[in-house]
Inverse folding.
């Protein structure tokens, strides 16, 4: 399966709290909810269609627990297009502590070797949505085949960014871009090894 990661980020790279402020998941972070006002019918349809293309989903532990309590529980969300995809496709949870995932069908994967096995299995797409720490880890282990960024036209000014201040470097090939009516920009990249750097002057 091709592993694709879809992340919603601000212009300053923040990926935290796109759907709203959550006192348990994001204590002290008061600028959540920056994505929802900027969605329109076209960008919403895009996200729905992306989810429908998934053969399976891979989540980090925190995102899995949160989605289980929302997309897996709240009636309107369960019945939505995205909710139907999340609830019916196989789900995998990256965790070294979870033993009994309650939001089925779900399987725990504990390390990079297990993710590589999933990628080697027949099928179309293994999708990651959200899960900042997981996407960072997947990129560090060269497990991401495509990275889709939905860049929202807002600077939040604080919060957890997708890419850490000190982390591995990546060259990326842009394979698709699109702008939605409210200014959200879709950017789809494929990892392309290490970047090339200009020589030091002098």
């Amino acid at each position: 399966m091709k592993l694709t990661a879809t992340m919603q980020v601000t212009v300053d790279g923040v990926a935290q709290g796109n759907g709203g402020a959550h006192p348990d998941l994001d204590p002290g972070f008061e600028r959540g909810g920056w994505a929802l006002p900027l969605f329109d019918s076209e960008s919403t349809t895009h996200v729905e269609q992306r989810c429908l293309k998934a053969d399976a989903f891979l989540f980090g532990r925190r995102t899995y627990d949160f989605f289980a309590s929302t997309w897996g529980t709240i009636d309107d969300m369960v019945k939505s297009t995205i909710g139907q995809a999340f609830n019916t496709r196989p789900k995998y949870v990256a965790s070294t502590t979870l033993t009994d995932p309650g939001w089925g069908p779900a399987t725990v994967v504990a390390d990079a070797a297990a993710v590589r096995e999933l990628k080697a299995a027949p099928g179309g797409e293994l999708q990651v949505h959200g899960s900042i720490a997981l996407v960072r880890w997947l990129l560090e282990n060269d497990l991401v085949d495509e990275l889709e960024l939905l860049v929202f036209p807002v600077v939040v000014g604080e919060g957890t960014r997708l890419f850490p201040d000190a982390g591995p470097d990546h060259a990326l090939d842009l394979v698709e871009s699109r702008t939605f009516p409210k200014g959200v920009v879709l950017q789809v990249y494929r990892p392309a090894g290490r970047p090339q750097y200009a020589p030091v002057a002098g």
In short: The chain has six helices and eight strands. The beta strands are 2-10, 56-60, 91-94, 106-109, 125-129, 146-152, 172-179, 185-191.
